[in-house]
Amino acid sequence: MKVRYLGHACFEFVAEKRILIDPFISQNPLCPIKLEELAEPDIILVTHGHADHLGDAIEISKKTGATIVAIHEVAIHAQLKGAVAEGMNIGGSISLEGVNIYMTEAKHSSAIDTNISGGHATGFVFGLEGKHIYHAGDTGIFRDMKLIGKLFDIYLALLPIGDRYTMGVKHAAIATKMLKPKYVIPMHYNTFPVIQQNPEEFKKLAEEESKAKVLILKPGEEIEL
Ligand code: NI
Ligand code: MN
Question: Which pLDDT band holds residue 190 (cuts at 50, 70, 90)?
């Protein structure tokens, strides 16, 4: 599978399907591509209602017909705005275009606006090429990460390390130990001054704490995994 990091929490996966996650593109200071340059995704996963995650999802869906998958409240909001969306909730799963998607909890908030609730913040475990990928969304560390690591044999975990709004490097290293993934890519750092972090510090700690290999991707960088 091809994995491209577009900065912040935005990733594009290309395998049997093209999956875009948290498409914060046009307003993302780290995203090296323009919205027009993005290939049509099959599925758009949105972890929660905050603007740096919902991002351009509605516009992309309206333009391409790609289905947004999000928690019920965010999905309803997207549908009301004219997007194609499938709602679900924490602990449930959905199979869409042959891709299995499971929704996890995230310790975070999710309001779309001051007066529009986005329900709860979430993460996803989804399957590509028979492997499990975990995108944690925005979250603090929580004990059930150990359970997620038990429910799924995680090939790749995408974990926030920016601190302040999510886990920082130390907690993300402990999260890595609980999840037992083969690979980890840190995310949600250095986009703004308040979430400046050194990913090398995370790599050092996580590789000490676990058997995982930490891959640090620059925004725009793509790897084959
Ligand atoms: Ni958030
Ligand atoms: Mn965020």
Answer: very high
